[in-house]
Amino acid sequence: MAATKRTASPKMTLGYVSEPGSKYNHSNDRTLQALKQEAFWFGIVIQSNATTAMNYAYNTGNSSYDPTGSIHLIYEEGRNALTINNSAYPKILSFMNDFVLKFTKQKQNYIRIANAGNSAALERQVETPIPVGFTVFNTAPYIPSTAEAATEIGTMYLIIISFVSVLMPSVKA
């Protein structure tokens, strides 16, 4: 029940929210713009032709089919690199890998049963063993500047000097 309540008002929770592609006019550019405007932390964007391309590859043997083009995982590491790298990214990557594994098993099993006795179809199935994959796009990577280390060291020296000057007894002349 609590999960249902949180899903009903997603602005009050950190979690997964499924939104229709029509919200972004089925456009990757609009989705990226929403990411830049911090509408979400991570976006799992399923391309509009993903199912059609996958089924075409299995039905006709499209050798140029690239399953990693079906789903895009987009995020901005530069927004908060520490939180993203330590908390969010490992979980979302685990979720995506788990999804690909489960979907692959389900799709391969369905095709195997549907094409029992059809050697040409089973051969195409072998040519495309993974029906779907994902590509990760970090649209704002966190790259520390060269001066950052020197600035941090300078700040530490300043703190030490301030601390020592406060603790030193006042000297009377």
Automatic annotation (TrEMBL):
Domain called DUF3533: residue spans: 19-167
InterPro entries attached to this UniProt entry: DUF3533 (IPR022703), MNNG_permease-like (IPR053001)
Gene Ontology CC annotations of this record: membrane
Pfam families linked to this entry: DUF3533 (PF12051)
Top-rank taxon, per record: Eukaryota
Identification of the protein by name: DUF3533 domain-containing protein
